[in-house]
Specification:
This protein has 2 helices and 9 strands. By secondary structure, the chain is mostly beta strands. The longest helix has 7 residues, at about 70-75. It is found in: Cytoplasm.
Length: about 140
């Protein structure tokens, strides 16, 4: 998809348990998609495996959740944390969604990552990225 990519060591995150459905893949590079709010989580060992990510706060400013102690420990989180949502692109770009129920949480200091499932949450796995009124003004797609 990308061809050859030069990936810096500091862009590689270790997911000790992989991602749901991809438990054997434990190392991913976080690659920014230039001039867009999106990034890719690209498997280091499997060229055909990547996930589109976006900061949920960009589209849902009041998005919040409490990270459990077990997750904090597993990720070694003390202060810095990055949160992303996985994106599902729809053929009609305006219907593209992001997963708010299972955010990808990254520790940029220790380069550890985990997809965390928020139990007892009203967030959805398929939250529309663009609200209906915004969707009408989206031009050109993603």
């Amino acid at each position: 998809m990308w061809g050859e990519l030069e990936v810096k060591e500091e862009d590689i995150y270790r997911f000790s348990k992989g991602l749901p459905g991809f438990e054997d893949e434990t190392e991913y590079a976080l690659i920014s998609w230039e001039e867009t709010p999106f990034s890719y989580l690209q498997s280091v060992h499997e060229p055909g495996l990547s996930f589109l990510l976006v900061s949920p706060f960009m589209f849902v400013p009041d998005y919040s959740f409490e990270l459990g102690e077990v997750d904090k420990e597993e990720l070694g989180i003390e202060e810095q944390v990055s949160v992303f949502s996985m994106v599902t692109i729809h053929s009609d770009t305006n219907k593209s969604t992001m997963n708010l129920l299972a955010p990808v949480v990254l520790n940029p200091e220790q380069r550890l990552g985990k997809q965390v499932v928020l139990h007892h949450s009203s967030y959805e796995t398929r939250h529309l990225i663009w609200a209906e009124d915004e969707a009408n003004s989206v031009k050109g797609g993603v």
